From TrEMBL, chain A:
This is Ferredoxin. The keyword Nucleotide-binding does not apply. It comes from the Bacteria. Keywords: Electron transport, Iron, Iron-sulfur, Metal-binding, Transport. Coiled coil: none annotated. The keyword rRNA-binding does not apply. One of its GO terms (molecular function) is metal ion binding.
């Protein structure tokens, strides 16, 4: 699973971070770091909870094959 | 109460007899429930026109659906925040910062202030906040089996934290509570008088910190630079005044509504007392059910919105108490479920003006509830006493007399 981060839409509510601080990393102002997030297999439930907590809808869950593959590749390097 | 005439471009069938200021339950009401009273708009259309919906009787469009409020609040180009609400009480015209600035100027000040209120920064402040809560509640517990939560806990607690930000001691606490009260509920004489005192106080404090810097918020503001220059006096004032008006009543009211709910719902009270881990989640649901702020935007151009002909200069209201009762967003919105999931409520707004103090406010509320429940045994509303609630620009609760004898 991958989380697509719409960085321009983030307004720093930090609700994602409140659910899963290790998955959703914030900058010094409290806004999410840019760049999509590849989610490790065991973290999927937590990550989707965090994504669903975003009041601005800045976090989109991507469960396509491509997303799975990118996680797979990441976990091997 | 005279209201301004409905503008010609508003179709008569879109006008509704509804107001956050004058509708039933909005004026001070014993045992009132202003949030439930406004929830009824969801039986109607997604947008309508309210002829009297600001302090001074201006009409506004009212956006009822959460999804549409998100759209309005995220689009600052079409829906501007430039209004001079506070300054207009004084017959002046300067913005509270960053509240009444639009992008891109808004972002410059917001970036300056964000690190001071970030989630990480709030974690550092937490011990002080908790210490204050404990000191106040211990005093209440030691002095009897009844108190007025607003006067004895909620206001002293939030004002104290505000004073801490400004590096000031507690001795002026009562004066501040009085100003905040007059500003919100005072008449046409008291309101401007309070506003003038607050401005004079902020100006004076800024001058003091310029001369002798200390480690506090005002010193940070007078020393800060934006775009390679220091802030102007007006910018320093606009920033200081906003901190005063934004953070006092809002948190105090939240604590008041939350404890009133728990006083009336002993099962939930017992649950949170025996399983304090649930308080964080519960506080979110109570923020959803009892939010306090109405946001107003000004249309910068003509736009047709869900069938409504919004014209340049029209006021558009996004009331968090309305968004948070939208059945399209929240299952059974009028039921309070302390374990509610997917709770993306609007209490702190949406878009670039998302409450700068939201992380601090959340900690204050959670810590307040944790320490209250840990120190005060089963409490209820004192017999014969009725908490007085009110609507308006910021919803609130005037008194909350609890009893645990
Ligand atoms: C439960 C308590 C609170 C609630 C419900 C609340 C609600 C809100 C809302 C809805 C807004 C958005 C206004 C708009 O978009 O026009 C806002 C903005 C703001 N709030 Fe809060 N607030 C709370 C506590 C605080 C505290 C404790 C502080 C300060 C320490 C604070 C400081 C601010 C500031 C500075 C802004 C302006 C942000 C901007 O325009 O970028 N608030 N608040
Ligand atoms: S919850 Fe949404 S808005 Fe908030 S920090 Fe996370 S991504 Fe940004």
């Amino acid at each position: 699973m991958r989380i697509i981060v719409h960085h321009a839409t983030c307004q720093g509510h930090a609700r994602c971070w409140a659910q899963a601080p290790d998955i959703f990393k914030l900058d010094d102002e409290g806004y999410i770091l840019p760049g999509d997030i590849n989610v490790a297999e065991g973290d999927e439930l937590l990550a989707s909870r965090g994504a669903q907590a975003c009041p601005e809808r800045a976090l989109e869950i991507d469960r396509t094959a491509a997303a799975l593959e990118s996680v797979f590749i990441q976990s091997r390097v | 109460m005279a209201s301004n005439p409905v503008p010609d471009h508003v179709p008569p069938e879109m006008v509704r007899d509804f107001s956050l200021f004058t509708s039933a339950g909005m004026l001070p009401t014993p045992n009132g429930d202003p949030h439930a009273a406004v929830a009824c708009v969801h039986a109607g259309p997604p947008i309508f026109y309210s002829p009297y919906n600001t302090h001074n009787g201006r009409g506004t469009w009212v956006i009822t659906r959460t999804r549409d409020q998100r759209r309005v609040l995220q689009d600052a180009e079409t829906f501007s925040s430039h209004r001079s609400i506070f300054a207009s009480v004084l017959g002046e015209n300067w913005p509270m910062i960053p509240l009444e600035l639009d992008p891109p100027a808004h972002g410059i000040f917001r970036s300056l202030l964000n690190p001071l209120f970030s989630p990480k920064r709030v974690m550092v402040l937490e011990p002080v906040v908790r210490e204050r809560a404990i000191a106040l509640i211990d005093r209440i517990a030691a002095s009897g089996t009844s108190c007025d939560v607003m006067k004895d806990f909620a206001f002293p607690f939030t004002v104290n934290i505000f004073l801490g930000f400004l590096g000031l001691s507690d001795d002026r606490l009562d004066i501040f509570v009085g100003w905040a009260n007059d500003l919100l509920h005072g008449d046409d004489v008291k309101r401007p008088a309070a506003a003038r005192m607050i401005v004079a106080f902020i100006d004076e404090l800024a001058a003091m910190r310029r001369k002798e810097p200390v480690a506090d918020f005002m010193t940070f503001v007078v020393q800060a630079e934006v775009e390679g220059r220091p802030l102007t006096d007006e910018e320093v004032r606009g920033t200081g005044v906003l901190l005063f008006v934004a953070g006092l009543d809002t948190v105090a009211a939240a604590i008041g509504f939350d404890l009133a709910y728990l006083a009336r719902n002993p099962k939930d009270q017992d649950l949170l007392r025996s399983e304090p881990d649930r308080i964080g989640f519960a506080a979110e649901e109570l923020l959803r059910a009892y939010p306090t702020v109405q946001m107003i935007r000004v249309a910068t151009k003509n736009i047709d919105f869900e069938g409504a002909p919004i014209r340049k200069g029209d006021y558009v209201s996004c009331a968090t108490m309305i968004a948070n009762r939208d059945p399209a967003e929240f299952k059974c919105p009028n039921t309070i479920d302390l374990a509610r999931e997917d709770n993306r409520h609007a209490a702190f707004g949406y878009g670039p003006h998302r409450c700068l103090g939201s992380h601090l406010a959340r900690r204050e509320i959670v810590i307040g509830l944790e320490e209250w429940l840990a120190r005060i045994p089963g409490f209820r509303i004192k017999e014969g006493m009725a908490p007085i609630t009110y609507g308006g620009h910021v919803f609130g609760i005037e008194n909350l007399i609890l009893d645990w004898s």
